[in-house]
Specification:
305 residues; Nuclear Transport Factor 2, Chain: A; seven-stranded mixed β-sheet; 11 helices; 7 strands
Length: 305
């Protein structure tokens, strides 16, 4: 094996992007996902390999169970979290599915994988219970059979089918009329905000717009969701006036959607994403991420499927 890598290590490394993709979608946290995958690696090293007929399935089972346990612990921690909690943003420098076994997927599959990484999609997933979330992801995103999923989450295949059906209905209801903004719409919003044109900003917003900012305990941010176009517009313009002169900013691909990423020595990294109503094209959701413990993923490539 080249570079001194053993067969066992190579088998795991080949699966790592897929395991990271599952763990990240389960937990919405890069650090927690990396911890889960690292624990799966430790268990992989200690198990008797001759007892494993299908390494990929074994690793998926271990990662799923570890992620379910971590999600339960994570939710207890969130009760003490300061302000709203949003998933960690990540730079999507790799094409969706690039690391899938067998090579790159077809266009439809690639679109499904990309959409399942959008921040709005992850926010909806967060409304599902741990087992419900695992079953839905394994079935609808990772295309596994209910027989396989049943073994992983210790449920019958029929129970998994019912769990997936309920979860699918919840997700569809929440995401039916929403999608990530395109770069043009985000650029229009950023331009209007930068010029302080409150009326122009309001014209881009849906009457039902909601702004959520996640600053955690270390950054000043709105502690509750901000509602209504006038309040959201004024808040965005007010925030823009506080941007340090030395800040750099640009539109980057974050969670497979355009995002405004601002970096400065004073304020660190700030990520702004938005969603639109599909039937009107108006912006219905704005997410601002400021917590320095959560935004590191936009400055490095997190390899996942």
């Amino acid at each position: 094996m080249s570079d001194g890598m053993t067969t066992d290590a190579k088998e795991f490394q080949d699966e790592r992007p897929r395991l990271m993709g599952l763990a990240y979608r389960m937990l919405g946290s890069v650090a927690d996902a990396e911890d889960v995958v690292q624990e799966a690696w430790i268990r992989w090293q200690s198990v008797e390999r001759t007892s494993i007929e299908r390494p990929a399935a074994w690793l998926t089972t271990v990662t799923s169970r570890l992620a379910i346990d971590r999600l339960r612990a994570q939710r207890r921690r969130r009760e003490e979290y300061v302000g709203p909690w949003l998933p960690d943003p990540i730079s999507t420098a790799f094409a969706p599915g690039e690391h899938e076994p067998g090579g790159s997927p077809g266009p439809e599959r690639a679109l499904e994988l990309a959409e399942s990484l959008e921040l709005g999609f992850l926010v909806v997933l967060d409304t599902l219970g741990p087992v419900e979330r695992a079953v839905f992801l394994l079935a609808d995103v990772f295309a596994m059979s209910f027989a396989e999923i049943g073994v992983m989450v210790e449920r019958t295949p029929e129970a998994c089918r019912q769990i997936a059906s309920r979860a699918r209905r919840k997700v569809r209801e929440e995401r039916a009329e929403r999608g990530a903004v395109d770069e043009g719409l985000l650029g229009d919003l950023v331009g209007a905000v930068a010029l302080g044109e409150i009326e122009r900003v309001m014209s881009l917003l849906s009457p039902d717009v909601v702004l959520v900012s996640d600053g955690g305990p270390l950054r000043h941010a709105a502690r509750r969701p901000v509602l209504y176009p006038d309040r959201v517009a004024r808040l965005l313009v007010n925030l823009a006036t506080r941007t340090p002169v030395e800040a750099t900013m640009g539109i980057e691909q974050v969670n497979h959607a355009p995002a405004l990423v601002m970096r400065s020595e004073q304020q660190g990294t700030i990520v702004v994403l938005a969603e639109r109503e599909l039937h009107t094209g108006a912006i219905i959701g704005v997410q601002i991420l400021l917590n320095p413990d959560k935004v590191g993923g936009v400055d490095r490539a997190v390899q996942l499927t």
